[in-house]
Design brief:
Organism: Devosia soli
Structural class: mainly alpha
InterPro entries: L-PG_synthase/AglD (IPR022791)
Protein name: Lysylphosphatidylglycerol synthetase
Shape: globular
Number of strands: 0
Order of helices and strands: HHHHHHHHHHHHHH
Helix content: over 70%
Largest sheet: none
Main location: membrane
Distance between the termini: 38 Å
Number of helices: 14
Membrane topology: Multi-pass membrane protein
Length: about 300
């Protein structure tokens, strides 16, 4: 696990030299706290909406999790994901802590499917917005070389999403049965309408929080940049060889911000601000961690 701490340190060290670290730090130090406060609010609303999505997925699989408890457990899982390498240990712990209502199998499925719904939404946005930006005349005002770079970035992001999803399925002996559970939780009996709305809201809050961090550090992103570049930056957080996406997210932001007419230092600063906001927004998980908890066993 300690090995995963090395890449973020190395990447951020390289960015300090390549992306004008002192300038990025100055932008971060002078960040507008009002936009950071709005970003903080957006991240908290995203956590609550994600917890509700988990509550609804679990309910369709036969696992009764009260909304208040789902929110508390989601905050705790966010705190763990922000603190430990891998980015999924908090979700694993969430499944284990919720096993008493319906067993570990269903608890694990509900967590996996809830996270998968988020990845599907992100991939769908990238597919639509990326195609629109590339084929629309003047989209992002990219030159041919930059357009090719964006295509490569889209492909890499897609591969990361697909591989991450497949690895989660292959690791479980019940992967075939998981397909049926996915249909029950996300598709059947109108579930797709509810899940589309929830996932769209969560994704919008995620994009808004990063865009507000960019605005706080002096960069105003247009709609195309928010819909295409920001999702690519956020996808870099899926790389498991890191802690909460640190390093890879900053590298992606520094590399992609110039496509929107901003500097690499601006991208570096915006990503640092976003990481700090997410970390601060996960701190309520400490109250859940140290709060006495009653264990409800299945009847």
């Amino acid at each position: 696990m300690l090995f995963r701490l090395v890449p973020p340190v190395i990447i951020i060290g390289l960015l300090w030299s390549l992306a004008d670290g002192p300038r990025a730090l100055a932008l971060l130090a002078g960040a507008d706290w009002r936009y950071l406060a709005l970003a903080f609010l957006a991240v908290n609303l995203q956590t609550i909406a994600s917890a509700w999505r988990w509550h609804r997925v679990a309910a369709r699989l036969g696992q009764a999790i009260a909304p208040s408890r789902a929110i508390a457990e989601y905050y705790l899982s966010q705190l763990v994901n922000q603190s430990l390498p891998g980015g999924v240990l908090g979700d694993a712990a969430r499944a284990v802590r919720a096993r008493h209502e319906a067993g570990l199998g269903i608890a694990a499925k509900s967590v996996v499917i809830e996270r998968l719904a988020g990845q599907i939404a992100m991939f769908g946005l990238l597919a639509v917005a990326g195609t629109w930006a590339i084929w629309t005349p003047g989209g992002l005002a990219l030159s041919m070389d930059k357009a090719q770079l964006l295509v490569v970035a889209l492909v890499i992001c897609t591969v990361l999403l697909v591989v991450a999803s497949l690895l989660r399925l292959v690791r479980k002996k019940w992967s075939l049965r998981l397909g049926r559970s996915i249909r029950i939780a996300l598709v059947n009996d109108g579930a797709w309408i509810e899940q589309t709305g929830l996932s769209g809201l969560i994704l919008a809050l995620n994009l808004a929080s990063f865009s507000l961090c960019a605005l706080a550090t002096g960069t105003s992103l247009n709609a195309e940049a928010i819909l295409v570049l920001v999702p690519l930056i956020l996808c870099a957080m899926l790389v498991p060889a890191t802690v909460a996406g640190w390093g890879f997210r900053e590298g992606a932001a520094a590399g992609l911000f110039p496509l929107a007419g901003a500097s690499a230092a601006a991208g570096f600063a915006a990503s640092l601000a976003f990481g700090l906001v997410i970390l601060a927004a996960s701190l309520p998980g400490l109250f859940v961690l140290f709060r006495p908890r009653k264990i409800r066993r299945p009847s």
